[in-house]
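Q: Could you predict the 3D structure of Pyruvate dehydrogenase E1 component subunit alpha?
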Amino acid sequence: MVKKPTATESASNVSKDELLKYYRDMLLIRRFEEKAGQLYGMGLIGGFCHLYIGQEAVVVGLESVTKEGDKRITSYRDHGHMLACGMSANGVMAELTGREGGYSKGKGGSMHMFSREKHFYGGHGIVAAQVPLGAGLAFADKYLGNDNVTFTYFGDGAANQGQVYETYNMAELWSLPVVFVIENNQYAMGTSVKRSTRSTTLFGRGAAFGIQGEQVDGMDVLAVRAAGEKAVAHCRAGKGPYILEVMTYRYRGHSMSDPAKYRTREEVQKMRDERDAIEHVRDLLLTGKHATEEDLKAIDKEIKDIVNESAEFAKESPEPALEELWTDIYADDLPQGAVKQNA
Ligand SMILES: Cc1ncc(C[n+]2csc(CCOP(=O)(O)OP(=O)(O)O)c2C)c(N)n1
Ligand SMILES: [Mg+2]
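A: Sure. Here are the predicted structure tokens for Pyruvate dehydrogenase E1 component subunit alpha:
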């Protein structure tokens, strides 16, 4: 793990409003996920559910360097990405509970949500499948001649998949504007990085294809932001892909059915006590006198209200009608830039 930065080191160059935004956005993800965990326990969420708790600084830090038009795609551990790019808590929670008001009308669930409006392309259950898809999204932007960047998130386990390296090769060859974000939370289900590879510095593998990259402290939202700025500038300048290996940690199990026998409680507790990303920003806000305990309490309440309302919305939304089984199978309209062929 990268050394903990001091408050002054990482607080330089950040405004009060930015810090407050990061605090709010990370807290929303955490409280939303805690609520999802509760609803799962109550039997209101079926199927798979992979919580992101602990990793919030990764997506919040990187979203802070995006602009309109940038795209994001990730794995099944996707609720944080959706909230951070501005998708509504109501729509995500209703999808988790399989209701009509959800982003996929209740037909997709936790791992299969999309938002064209927010340029969020899923939600993918096959490990690493989103990596070539992310390069494809970046290819489309390059083809259309704009300066959008695609953020392609995947895990340390996914980094051992062959398709990642085929994608690296093509992405560099074609100078695609894609930031490959390896969320290294140190485990792939119950297998630690050390048990799965001798080459544990995952970003370094890009060198074989000529792709630059770096390792980042993923428990420090400002460190993530700084690395994200560099990566995105590289891509927008037409210099091709960039790899960010973001060192993070998930506090909860792999999914809701994880027996958690592969690590000790002490290991998890130590991360929570010493490296929690939300606590870190809270400290910066208080020590920098940007906010009082009262201000932060008011934000906590605001977030709690949003999350409670999303759970109510989800419970009240009806299940999808049976006829919905036959809708949303083929696209009715063509993507931007596509030319209609005569049949
Ligand atoms: C191709 C494929 N192989 C195996 C699985 C089962 N599986 C689901 S998640 C996972 C671990 C992936 O770990 P990592 O990439 O580190 O992501 P994390 O869950 O830590 O976010 C595995 C093996 C799968 N879904 N797809
Ligand atoms: Mg992992």
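Q: Anything worth pointing out?
A: The pocket of magnesium ion (ligand 2) is lined by residues 155-157, 185, 187-188 (CB under 6 Å).
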